[in-house]
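User: Can you predict the 3D structure of 8-oxo-dGTP diphosphatase? Sequence below.
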Amino acid sequence: MASKFTSAIVRLFHDPAERRRLQGPIIEVAIAIIVRDGEILVTRRKEGVHLPGLWEFPGGKRDSGETIRACLLREVKEELGATVEIERLFWERSHDYADRTVILHAYFCRLLSGDLMPLASQELKWIRPDSLLSLPFPEANRPLLEKLAKELSRDSLEKKG
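Assistant: Sure. Here are the predicted structure tokens for 8-oxo-dGTP diphosphatase:
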């Protein structure tokens, strides 16, 4: 049986009335939640891109014909020069901006190899979950930040990272 989220996504892509309600394209985004020593990796968006200067999690847009998991692995390699293992889906949600709709898929990932480098961002840093809400993130990420800050303690993060 399909989840409520999956049913909503199917309607977004296949129901003409639902599609007309939206402005602009539908963009699927894979998000990597990478944990190390009780902290989560975040990156800062470069100037000259959509939502410049805001913080975000590593990840990016799914290419046509690509699975969301393949997208996540590719984006982490392109953005950080690193390889991760996808552990589990943590959160999914769609968000309507004025000019586009984004569908976010956030996965816990384990860092396997590579020296982390901000290849596609202006900086990266590790931050405690309870400090996530102090950084400026895109509005679409707000529910994810709240869930991470609320549900994850130092002990539970260390078990994941």
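The CA atoms of residues 24 and 100 lie 4 Å apart. The domain at 23-159 is CATH 3.90.79.10 (Nucleoside Triphosphate Pyrophosphohydrolase).
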